[in-house]
DNA sequence: ATGGCACCTGGAGCGCACTCCAGGTCAACC
DNA sequence: GGTTGACCTGGAGTGCGCTCCAGGTGCCAT
């Protein structure tokens, strides 16, 4: 059962130490284990969960919804259908984002071509 | 030479009236023409420019950089190479965004599959 | 001429997601 | 035993991009 120091988790997840503390404070992370000196010692599970958080965050999910997802996970196995629903809805938003970006990108390409044509 | 009322521009561009005023105030939009009563009358050109703004904004360009682009446009034809450079750099960021989203999306898909498998 | 509506201004306020700070603890190494 | 460095806490501050508000003007239809 490996544990991680704060510095290791910062390294692994790319979140800042302040962000990790903030996530714990708002309940996005369950209270993290402490050593005798009161310093955080993250579990493998914490780090895995942070990977999920990073994925959701980087795809634009608001914290409020990540909190909802966190609650479902804590509530136990019977919430799996709800979790699927939440992730599928999010997936649709991600797909929409990608489609939108792709469309905008082609506009940018056209603009670049136009600029090249008038040089 | 068609002109547009604020309400029409809101309708066309999807920006709120407050946002349009804000963009004008910070100089993202050049001072808009006014009628005798002091109300804004947007030109075709304004609306076209707002289309560009929407594209850049929706692809995540910060306002500071849009301002820089606006300055280049105002400065005249000789800035076209700079504009191309700016747009190409932005294009690379957009491509990176799309790639990142696509990768994250596959993580979400795996998670959904996993949840389905344990049902 | 009265009411309603679209619009005006300057400036304050907001929501999000952090980020920073002051002051403190503890362990380890020179 | 002194210093360094990683970590702790509660709470204040930040940056971005709007968004809202109060108070006012002018036009138009009833």
Automatic annotation (TrEMBL), chains A, B:
SUPFAM superfamilies: Putative DNA-binding domain
Limits of the HTH merR-type domain: 3-72
InterPro entries: DNA-bd_dom_put_sf, MerR-type_HTH_dom, MerR_fam
Keyword annotations of the record: DNA-binding
Annotated coiled-coil segments of the chain: none
Domain of life of the source: Bacteria
Signal peptide: none
Protein's recorded name: DNA-binding transcriptional regulator, MerR family
Keyword Lyase: no
Pfam families attached to this UniProt entry: MerR_1
GO molecular function (one): DNA-binding transcription factor activity
């Amino acid at each position: 059962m490996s544990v991680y120091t704060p510095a290791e988790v910062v390294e692994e997840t790319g979140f800042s130490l302040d962000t990790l503390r903030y996530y714990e404070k708002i309940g996005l992370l369950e209270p993290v284990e402490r050593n005798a000196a009161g310093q955080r010692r993250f579990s493998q599970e914490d780090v895995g969960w942070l990977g999920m958080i990073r994925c959701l965050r980087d795809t634009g999910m608001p914290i409020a919804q990540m909190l909802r997802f966190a609650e479902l996970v804590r509530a136990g196995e019977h919430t799996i259908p709800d979790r699927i629903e939440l992730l599928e809805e999010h997936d649709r938003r991600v797909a929409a984002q990608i489609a939108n970006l792709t469309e905008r990108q082609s506009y940018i390409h056209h603009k670049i071509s136009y600029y090249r044509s008038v040089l």
